[in-house]
Prior knowledge:
single chain; 153 residues; five-stranded parallel beta sheet; 5 helices; alpha/beta
Amino acid sequence: MNNACMTKEVVLLIADDDDGHALLIEKNLRRAGLHNTIQRFVDGQQILDFLFRRGPGRQRQTDTAYLLLLDIRMPKVDGVEVLRQTKEDPSLRKLPIIMLTTTEDPREVARCHELGCNNYIVKPVDYAHFAETIKQMGVFVALVQVPDINGKP
């Protein structure tokens, strides 16, 4: 097996300031059969501090694979800026990032793809559609191979 792919459990990072959306995301990922560790961040600055290992709070671990579910509209630092900073950093650019947002403006979708997002999913307004979308994403996450962003310890 290629050393760039991790076979261990992927930690899911959810960066979303909406408590209701974050709870629905987690609940429906669990319904899809995912039992991965989930860490939640309520604004863009929190997730940047975690990823770049800054400040006194939680920080990413060297020996852990991550996948980021990133909202665009967040306080302090928006998701597009988080995406830009992450993908510009040589040690983080391989981090898989799925934009999960209510914004379906084609220019925003194009911008996120240009900056390097791996996928862009619009959160449906209808609860049943939202739940189904997240469950389908959970199946995808369960199958995807996530690259090691940390290199050898």
